[in-house]
Amino acid sequence: MQTRLDELQEMAGKDTYIMRGVLSAIQTSHEVAVIAIMLLLTLLALLGSTTASRLSVSGTDLTYGGEKVFLNGVNIAWNSYGYDFGNGGYDGTLETWVGEIGNAGGNSIRVWVHVEGFSTPEFDDDGYVTDCDRTGQFEDDVLKLLNAAQQHNVLVNLVMWNGAYLTNQKAINLVWDDSKLDSYIQNCLNSLINTIKGHPALASFEAVNEPEGSVRVESNGNACYDTTTIGQDGAGWTGTNIPMENWLHFIGRLNQAVRAIDSSTLTTIGSWGQFAQNDAFSNSHNHYTDSCLNGAAGSNSQLDYYQMHTYDWSGSWSPGAPFTVSASDYNLNKPIVIGEFASVCAAGTSLPDLYEYAYTHGYSGAWSWHYVATGDCSDSRDAQQQALGHLKGRTDHGTVSFTVG
Length: 405
Fold this sequence. Notes:
Number of helices: 12
Strand order of the largest sheet: 4-5-8-9-10-11-12-13
Helix content: 25-40%
Number of strands: 13
Distance between the termini: 37 Å
Radius of gyration: 23 Å
Order of helices and strands: HHHEEEEHEEEHEHHEHHEHEEHEH
Oligomer: single chain
Strand content: 15-25%
């Protein structure tokens, strides 16, 4: 009997006052003990059932709380490009936007964090990362956003770096120099993930946005690193010339670091188009397969779901673009989210119709570009709010309205 009491006390936790009372009752009466054990097991089951849900993968679907979901959301991206978190830059604007998005029917956002690294993380003169920021606010700022997102039933995808436009040499060097990458992981990333691990609003982690923008276009005997196919459609537009092998190593190392601390946080990469994430079309090659990422960086480097961005070109979609095919046409074995799009660059298709297409053609989510509403390919904030309401409450191709927690 004493052994069982010890087991129950360990299960209940040393600081649970209710459990202490139950255990005291067990010790005074065998009959009461039987009742108390039954009550205790019921209570433990209830406590287990209230464990926070996390965004998960089931085959080619995303799930939350065990049910298939569709990520109906927007790119917040930034309020102040690269300066939203840490060093006193967090001013609550993003929280206001999250509330507007949640009230409009959105359930998810994609937000950029370091971007080019001009504010965070903190680099020394030699380009090594010494901390996340100068003031020690960075990690808590990200946590504040996650807390606000949970209050409004919104999931968050964190995008750490921006390969579409990368001009800070110290950030570029993280992709070239493993010792400098180690300093970032050890002195910033690990601290961030330890602060936010297990948060129900933390949906996924994205090491870098559109690395294809800064990739070197070159042939290579390893198909994972041969970028000639994607180069034909515009990859490498920044001229930064980082080999794909380096990018895959960088992405894989960050994915490993996240998984080592919080294995339930999903990982993804937002590509500038479908070209770099499938082998189903002749103008495309999938550089982000499990074998490519694990081959470049080691085990546990893989993505959990794919993410494709898409805009028209001179008023027309490219062959095989997401809004011209179904998700299944890519022959991928993971969920696919359309991570950037806008009706003003969508071959004349309205924003509600774009969400509808993604929802009914097998995609696991759609995030419009972008909530700050600047640039040629960005819809107004009002238009995005109205479009989010188009799918509100739908369940026929995945639950859209769900509780985060």
